[in-house]
Write a structure and sequence with these properties.
Elements lengths: L2 E4 L2 E3 L5 E7 L8 E7 L6 E7 L4 E3 L7 E6 L4 E6 L8 E8 L4 E3 L3 E5 L2
Parallel strand pairs: 2-11
Antiparallel strand pairs: 1-3, 3-8, 4-5, 4-9, 5-6, 7-8, 9-10, 9-11
Length: about 110
C-alpha cells in the first residue's frame, strides 16, 4: 500500500491549494488520517488530522485557514488550504494510522511566495 500525495505547487500569499492523499488500495482499520509539514531547517509538525468518525484537529497556526476532509469511498484525504502565508511553505506529508502501523506519503512541496 502506498499513499500518494499531490496538489502542491507555487502560490502567492493569500492564495489557495488543495492537497490530496490517495491510498493505492484500501487500508483496513484506519483510525486517523493526518497531514504534517516540514519546512527547511525545522522539525516535521502536525498540521491537521481527522478520525474515521470525522473528528478533526488543527494546529493553531492553520486554524480557520485549513480544512481537512476525507472521502472513504475514494480512499482519499484532502487538505484545503486557504489564505496561505509565507510561513506555510513546506513539504507536506500525509500519514494514515491503523492498529498496526503508520503509512506515510512521499510528500508534496508547497511554496508560498510573491
Amino acid at each position: 500500500v502506498q499513499l500518494q500525495a499531490s496538489g502542491g505547487g507555487l502560490v502567492q500569499p493569500g492564495g489557495s491549494l488543495r492537497l490530496s492523499c490517495l491510498a493505492t488500495r484500501k487500508i483496513g482499520g484506519v483510525r486517523i488520517m493526518a497531514w504534517y509539514r516540514q519546512a527547511p531547517g525545522k522539525e516535521r509538525e502536525s498540521v491537521a488530522s481527522i478520525t474515521v468518525g470525522g473528528h478533526t484537529n488543527y494546529a493553531d497556526s492553520v486554524k480557520g485557514r485549513f480544512s481537512i476532509s476525507r472521502d472513504i469511498a475514494k480512499n482519499t484525504v484532502y487538505l484545503q488550504m486557504n489564505s496561505l502565508i509565507l510561513e506555510d511553505t513546506a513539504v507536506y506529508y500525509c500519514k494514515w494510522t491503523n492498529n498496526y502501523r503508520e503509512y506515510w506519503g512521499q510528500g508534496t512541496q508547497v511554496t508560498v511566495s510573491s
